[in-house]
Amino acid sequence: MADKKRLSVVLIARNEAGLLAECLESVSWADEIILLDSGSEDGTLDVARGFGAKVFANTDWPGFGKQRQLAQSHATGDYILMIDADERVSPELRQSVENVLHNPPENTVYSLGRSNLFLGKFMRHSGWYPDRVNRLYPANFRYNDDLVHESLMTKDANVVPLQGDLLHLTCRDFFAFQRKQLSYAEAWAIQRHQQGRRCSFFSVISHTLGAFVKTWILRAGFLDGKQGLILAGVNAQYTFNKYAALWALSHQLQK
């Protein structure tokens, strides 16, 4: 029987002291924990060190994709589990991960189903469940360079879904959530603009309406009740901000 593969849990964080302890407790069974900090001014580093994490810093923010690459470069494990401070590994998911480490097949990455909290409710529809993300993978894989909404470059690998939820405390504070959404929209628009992407005013409107319909109807957001309706509006607002910002950047360039 092959030796169990070593697991490195990798995080990037900034000012996450209030969330970090529960996150790290849920992965305390890993072989090592790597935390790359981007300039915390609270107790984030103390919390991380209290759980035995190896702490590094990079305050010259390069975007989410490259920051994750840098964080992973400090890991020594055979496999990487990439998580965020507002996520927790459930007991069932832990068991699934440990099963993989005992006998992993070649060229395979693993998707984790996220259960997302929105205004006090873990959503079960609206496109927010199971919200699969590729987060467990051999250390020779890495994230792309995207400034925001970065993703793992899976190449030609097999992608296998794991059992068990990754609990994601997505929206605990509505105002903080909205501020984060706005910053994501700005980063998205800037990156697309730099890539030469443009959009028409009609695209701003059509994408906004499409986001609401997709969330509320096509993804059965109505089954999530009041939270589903609010989320459909939030998704529409976020989409509007993205495409309106991209349109505005193009419009400003023409003046």
Automatic annotation (TrEMBL):
Gene3D superfamilies associated with the record: Spore Coat Polysaccharide Biosynthesis Protein SpsA, Chain A
Annotated ranges, domain Glycosyltransferase 2-like: 8-134
Pfam families tied to this protein: Glycos_transf_2
Top-level taxon in the UniProt lineage: Bacteria
Family: Belongs to the glycosyltransferase 2 family. WaaE/KdtX subfamily.
Protein's UniProt name: Glycosyltransferase
Species the sequence originates in: Rahnella inusitata
